[in-house]
Amino acid sequence: MRQLLIAFFMIFGFSVHAFANDEALAITPQQTFDLVQTQPDQMLFVDVRDPIEIMFIGFTDVAQANIPFLLADRNRFLDDKQRFAMDKNPQFATQIEAALKAKSLNKDALIITMCRSGSSRGKPSADYLLSQGFTNVKYIDHGFQGSSAKEGEKAGMRIVNGWQNDGLPWSMKINPGKIYRSGQ
């Protein structure tokens, strides 16, 4: 019976793990790229980084939208962390739902989120969407820029894995039609 249920959920695109634990599953950058190439109209691939971060780190036009999970508050600088405070985008779930609706999809469609590293916004944004009633959410393991090298000449540099380091398409050019703009 268990195998029958698992097969049912897999056929209809539901995440079995998500139903069991309310926790999103990781997916590789290559798997995401392949899904966008083969079924772009059946899913939503979202870059959840702040658009200013995208401007300095790069973007993949394979992402179908940029909807930030956290937005930098440029009025609150955290001296101890040497960065601006990041606040949750209060419209995140609503904006995701609108992006799905624009593609004639609903909350059961596959959604894949991607941040810089996969852990600070990719997984939390996917878990948040699951808590908001979205049923098939995954996040890109190691995100756009990947993990830092632990040793060697390039220790500390993000060169280990992730979208950029897997050789997938990206650019420093931002697609104006996909980038998040506050107030829109």
UniProtKB/TrEMBL annotation:
Gene Ontology molecular-function annotations: transferase activity
UniProt keyword terms in alphabetical order: Signal, Transferase
Gene3D superfamilies per UniProt: Rhodanese-like domain
InterPro entries noted in UniProt: Rhodanese-like_dom, Rhodanese-like_dom_sf
One protein family per Pfam: Rhodanese
Signal peptide stretch: 1-20
Domain Rhodanese, chain residue ranges per copy: 39-156
Protein name per UniProt: Sulfurtransferase
Species in which this protein is naturally found: Marinobacter psychrophilus
